[in-house]
Amino acid sequence: MTVRRRIATATIGFGALALAAVTLAPLVGSTSISLARAFDTSIPFADNTDAQIFFVARLPRTLAGAIVGAALATAGVIFQGLLRNPLATPFTLGVSSGAALGAMLAITFDWTLGIAGISAVPAAAFVGGAIAVTIVYSLARGYRRGLSTDVLLLAGVTLNAFFSALILCVQYFADFADAYRTLRWLMGDLDISSYQPIIAGLPLLLVAFAIFATLARPLNLLSLGTDSAETRGLAVTTAQRRAFFSASLATGAAVSIAGPIGFIGIIVPHFVRLIVGADHRVVLPASALFGAAFLVGCDVLSRTIMAPVEMPVGVITALIGGPFFLWLLVRKA
């Protein structure tokens, strides 16, 4: 099968799955709704309970789930290719812990932001993630031969531990209500009731995905090693920087929308590789589409498994991803 045919087959197959998930998810919940009534314009929106549930309670979180799932899954592919480590995730390099620290500070100290209706929490989360990325990159760029992936990995792990300690410190001084809010945010949650967080993060994600579209061939070459990649005409340093910053941008934007939802960036890429192989020209679009479907499906489970109580979607992904991660460790051993 030619590469183009494989890409088309994977895109159609996983695209159909993602489309089905996004279409059906808003119809599923603890309360049954009538789709015809939800789209009935003759009923005032204030009096149309079905429309309010569909357009306010369910559709925004479904769209957010699809966007965040696609971003985290694709960022996982990029980081695994960049670091040449199959166990790398979008949170390996400290982006999530930096974003979490920013969100904790915004919640605990009740920061406000009156710019275009943007909430202070996602804005602070994105800034915190950007600071973490800047620190890690500054530590790794001093090497003469491109970015040192070893330094990236070690700096990211160290920064994760340091920011986690700062998060605990902030939580210690927070009152009970703020501590509960921070705990819920750290679990990762798609409980949003407006389109504003999606609109705020979408431009950043579009930039990241535009760069992702140019990274398939460089990642294939980097998988052979930097020396082999250079002999085949790849500007290794440039490719590494594009991969690092685009994946970090997507991760920061995703975390600012939904919090640090774990395991998406390791479950989805490896599952996709089992089906389509290791060629990044196929893996990247397939992972984006399956990541969207997977997180939307997990969100449906979080809303229905203990209805009417809703679990944070990060708990569902962790319950699925934990055993998968252990299996992957055993398989790679």
Tell me what the structure shows.
With 333 residues, this protein is mainly alpha-helical. The chain contains 14 helices and no strands. The protein has helices spanning 3-24, 35-38, 49-83, 95-108, 120-140, 149-173, 176-187, 196-212, 216-222, 226-231, 236-258, 264-276, 280-304, 313-332. It starts with a helix and ends with a helix. The mean pLDDT is 88.
What's the short story on this structure?
This protein is 73% helix and 0% strand. By secondary structure, the chain is mainly alpha-helical. The longest helix is centred in the first third of the chain and has 35 residues, at 49-83.
Tell me, what's the shape? globular
Overall number of strands: 0
Could you tell me the strand content as a percent range?
A: under 5%
Give the low-pLDDT segments: none
Radius of gyration: 20 Å
Tally of alpha and pi helices: 14
Share of helical residues: over 70%
The largest sheet is: none
**Average predicted confidence as pLDDT:** 88
Structural class: mainly alpha
Secondary-structure element order, N to C: HHHHHHHHHHHHHH
Per-chain topology:
Elements (H helix, E strand, L loop, with lengths): L2 H22 L10 H4 L10 H35 L11 H14 L11 H21 L8 H25 L2 H12 L8 H17 L3 H7 L3 H6 L4 H23 L5 H13 L3 H25 L8 H20 L1
Helix pairs in contact: 1-13, 3-8, 3-11, 3-12, 3-13, 4-5, 4-6, 4-7, 4-11, 5-6, 5-11, 8-11, 9-13, 12-13, 13-14
Keywords:
mainly alpha, 333 residues, 0% strand, globular
